[in-house]
Fold each of these.
Amino acid sequence: MTIKGKAYIAGIYEHPTRHAPDKSTAQLHAEVAKGAIEDAGLTKADIDGYFCAGDAPGGAWPMVDYLGLKVRHVDSTETGGCSYLIHLGHAAEAIAAGKCSIALVTLAGKPRTGPMPPRAAGAEADFEAAYGATTHNAYGMCAMRHMHDYGTTSEQLAWIKVAASHHAQYNPHAMLKEVVTVEDVINSPMISDPLHRMDCCVVTDGGGAMIVTTPEIAKSLKKPLVRLIGHGEAMKGPRGGKDLDLTYSAGVWSGPRAFEEAGVTPKDIKYASIYDSFTITVLMQLEDLGFCKKGEGGKFVADGNLISGVGKLPFNTDGGGLCSNHPVNRGGMTKILEAVRQLRGEAHPKVQVQNCDLAIAHGTGGLLGVRHAASTCILERV
Amino acid sequence: MADSKRYPAPATNPETAPFWEAAKAGKFMIKRCTACGEAHYFPRSICPFCFSDKTVWEESSGEATVYTYSLMRKSPTGPYAIAYVTLKEGPSLQTNIVDCDLEKIKIGQKVKLVWKPTDGAPLPFFTAA
């Protein structure tokens, strides 16, 4: 059995806010849900499946009640920032199995307004919590080892931020709209070696949502048809400390599964949404997904190769997490939303990829250098 | 300096209590599986590789090399260096490099175990060997 072509993304919405001290988190979930339902041309009563992750206050049942939904299928898989990519795959499975026909997926929160609740501790807590692993230094350790093993440079990493900034200048909602140079990035303050401030994504309030539905229902609606044709998910951790290798992510497993299901290869992809919590995240994932060989990511991203209209692989044309939006410190949803815009032909004209009929949305969740999940979605315009 | 930093006491549990009891006596213990022969860290009762329950405690030399690190330039308690080090016995583990010039840490450098006190059992850290 496959989910190939069994589910369509019929509605999308990205909250325009990047700072929302005047709103509640549940309210932001409701606002993005409303936006996605209206984009699809549906009503709330049509929703019969609901998907959310750890950012939803109280989890699925308080949210279903707060939103006033009546659903026959729920899924609250929590894998950090890539939860929503996994939700898309799981929604397709549920739809293919007849468990629901119109699924709503929401993400929202306010990390810029106030501190986020701490992560739940795993069995490793006594053996790791004291060492102060944060996003910055956990990704920094990956970058440090990648540089050691493959000669990757800070200048090469900087090109990823440069490309994102070229795209963000056209996004009126982007938090950072200024175009930056490689020199700007490597001269920005060192946060956690070897990552500079401009190697890091933004922290934003906000959210996003999507509607996933059956081929029949999607075709009865008015939006351009975008469907999921391949999905993969995987997890990676230090696993008892054997053969530790921080230069690759779980994308080495989720990517090939998604490409195989879709029956396409990285060469076929016209547009790529790649989770950009940090510049190193993008570089490692591009290698892991097969856009270039392991260790050659630095060369691949350099000289504007990720800039739409300039390079071979236009990426994150909304400005991504590095410049536009990283709601709730979780970038998976916005990766899907920009991929759908590209496939619909609704991206900004300055960054719209011509004849964009095949896109990838990929991300990781958790801490790349500690424990993380990865999920890959291959999307096609019909 | 890192010496002024206060570290949280491990909560401990029935599975890991022997590790922390040994730590109080200055012994750094890892687990080894007698079925597949692999050592692992942090300690589990069931081997994460072959899933045998025939795991035994083994004292580590505390000698290791730096696999990778990152120097966090600012924090409420000052700069600190997070790292993975690979023990002579095989397993790699997350730790901090302490009590040495953090600007001079290098991948591949030899490090050795040092204990830092808490209100409970001490915690393992590593410093330049």
Amino acid sequence: MTEVGGSRGAQHPGGGVLLTTTVGSFGKPEYLQKARNAFARGKLGKTELEELERKATTEWIRVQEDLDLDILVDGEMYRGDMVAHFAELLDGYTVGGLVRAYGNRYYHKPIISGKVARPKPMTVDWFTFAQSLTDRPVKGMLTGPYTMLDWSYLESYPTRRDAALALAEAIRLEAEDLDRAGAKYIQIDEPAIHARPEELDIAIEAMGIVTQNLKAKTISHICYGDFAAIYPKVLDLPVDQLDLAMVNYEYKYLDLFDRDPFTKEMAIGIVDVHKHALESVEEAAEGIRKGLKYVPADKLLPHPDCGLKTRPVEESIAKCRIVVEATKVVRQELAKASR
Amino acid sequence: MKTTVIGAYPKISDETGGQALRNALHRHDRGEIDDGELATVQDGATRAAIAEIEGTGIDILNDGQIRWDDLFAPFAKAWGGVSRGPLERYYDNNTYFRQPLIEGKITTDGKTLVRDFAFARGQTTHELKAAICGPLTFATLAIDKHYRTLEDRVAAVADALAAEITGLGAAGATLIDVEEPALVAQPQHIELARAAFQRLAAAGVPLALQTYFFPADRVLELLASFPVAQIGLDIRSRDTTVLRRLDVFGEKTIVLGIVEARNTRLETRDELTKLAEEALKLVKPDRLWLAPTTSLEFLPHDVAVKKLAVLAEAARVAGGVVA
């Protein structure tokens, strides 16, 4: 892991302040949804599906450039669930039966049923492909070991810590391959990190294994849970940047930083990804201003609260546009204030 | 020594024909079937769940909560002053519930669950218990724009739940689970919960206080004085010493959660029997019920069925029925 600021810090528009980004996933275009369904029914081959996934990835890279986002993502056109995707590629996992997430939504919750190992790189080709499409930095995107553990059933390790550390070794190999492939940013998501606050030390220990040798700037996305229960201890998570859902909680967690200052870079969620309604640019800008009370502009990155995969394509774009426009407003304010 | 289930049963399965309810809900959302057609499918799924639980050898059944989107949904839909709010993660699970949104005085006719309970009871000759959410759990997970304090909110929810208990009692319920994970998640509120349970108990139907997800170690002695007939304890989700302290409950029945309802690893009969035998050192057999730790809906359907079968078998062995 590098110092904050990163030895590979890219040149960005906006003078390197308030760099805009997104959390990782975007809505899949209709043709890809249909293709995935056809693939699941055995009506479409893997090669044909991958071709459409590359097409959709290319489109999302163009959209992000057109929106003028600073740090891009590949949009995860090749993924369904963030844990199941890796579980399918790692040894030691089996696919479980359907369980309900909420309402009438179900998913196949994976089972850690053997010794976890990474037989081959899982995301490097997608990163390399996406990065080849743009001069702007594209983030390498991984799911963290604690979340991989917590969102899986566990049958084959005696303790949760044992399983988390085994997962960390497998994810470390992937992160180091992304690093070697030139990723300037590697994001290792831990949305489950507050599920059991008493296990925060396990999450920190496991993340330390993943990030120990990386040159890239490291990020971890955390969302939807009791952030207060893990703060300020979560500042010990060995990453450079925490990527936090904030607007969904009406920015209440910023109050925690009055007592214990926030010491990392922060990607701040300023548009809610689980609402169809669009925030106004001014509302989103106000979110950035709230964040600036605690984190300086060169370490604050405006973005949506979470991945946008649950939103239709046009809504994803509209939400991102608000992030960019709100950031422009605040950048101008900062520029005016510094004159 | 009896066996029972707690909470929700898997609504669908991976087996052929096992997704009728899921498909019906999708079709209902698209306007392709009406409320009556959906209700028929829901009744069918309820009937199947009851038959299946009964078939595994479990003694005391429930209706599987097939119509419940989450622990609060039936009440948030039916009560005045409450609606269903935004999604939030449900404790330490990777599942979500809609937060009850309280925007006015909570009111109910007390008949929210009566129809479904009566239907479920008609599907079996076994004893079948009802269930409601706990007042503290509802109140601590709700978004409240009406009541001024947590105390006021808990009292209002408890009064509404007491009306539901009265309604269920009139419909023939002889035992009602009160699912109250908040009591062990936030044990600092135990006195508030006790006052709420006094309101529930006044309705005059025997209650089973079901705690789960978190250990009850810190509040065990205090739980013993709650005005309920049964106390449910989860001894698998986290490390706990309660198995060695079960003698604090006097004449109350203990519903011991010995089957992990949130992990697919299948317990062995011997493993469960040993836990039951450990409990029997401190509790008489007629005051010990064995159960999963919580709702089996956290598991795929096929695993839930297998776990219940092992539970029933372990109870028979521990009870001396099988040599």
